[in-house]
Design goal:
Helix content: 25-40%
Number of strands: 10
Radius of gyration: 19 Å
CATH class of the largest domain: Alpha Beta
Shape: globular
Oligomer: single chain
Strand content: 15-25%
Structural class: alpha/beta
Largest sheet: 6 strands, parallel
CATH topology of the largest domain: Rossmann fold
Number of domains: 2
Mean pLDDT: 93
Order of helices and strands: EHEHEHEHEHEHEHEEHE
Number of helices: 8
Length: 285
Amino acid sequence: MKNRTMSIFYFSGTGNTWWVSTQITEELNRLGIDAYAYSIEQVSEQETARLVHTSDVVGLGFPIYGSDVPVNFHAFIQALPDQDAPKATLGFVTQWAWSGDGMNFLEKELRTKGYNLKWAAEFNMFNNIALTIFPALYSADHKAFLPKLKKIRREINALCEKIVRGAGYRQHGNLLDSALGWVQRGPFRLMYEWGRKQWSVDADACTSCERCARICPVSNIRMADGLPIHGNACVYCMRCYNYCPTYAVHYLGAGNRRMEKKPPFQGPVPEFLPELITKIIRKIS
């Protein structure tokens, strides 16, 4: 393979895409590719442009919500520097089960900016929507995750071998997959603005630790009189909900979350903390 350098830019809400990005870079480095992964929350537009210019391959990864791209990652894509010659690009998404066309619906937009989507992959990770009204649909048991993580690691290794060989790979990139993607994407976009405004905080449970405000990827949470206030710019990452130490953040006005019986999803591995990929890295006491 002639391509020997790669920069992966990713957005991760609660750790799934962070883990996949890390595993891809580790495997590519093992195979002789100089690869690095960057959280889009930690690189400036100028740094991104420099890294894109000096990389043979660009990687783009995000958690897909309702078969759609998170609005902050879409803004990142729109700000990518245009390329004079096609830039080989890896696109991948993390999903709970199914998204139809995965990354492929962004191909035209990427191509107009000079990014050739040579590899498009999907990785079925863990459900981070830890709503207590759907207790059977999520888990926080890191030990139970291990078999699935091993399987996904094999999928990542196979993808990396294709990248090293220069062999293209497109998962779910036909017209039927595109139509199936819109089965989710259309309704999701229709409900998007309404849904992002349904957050509330239990004043009795909140300790004013401000963690939710610190880890919000789009600065959508501000503190007022010791309580967090959500704005209207939510990107559905679930960080504030899943990582509140006292489970004080509610969605759709839900009452007692009873998280002492079943804690929320907090990353695919226990070492993940959202502070690792946010702009300000702080230790949690």
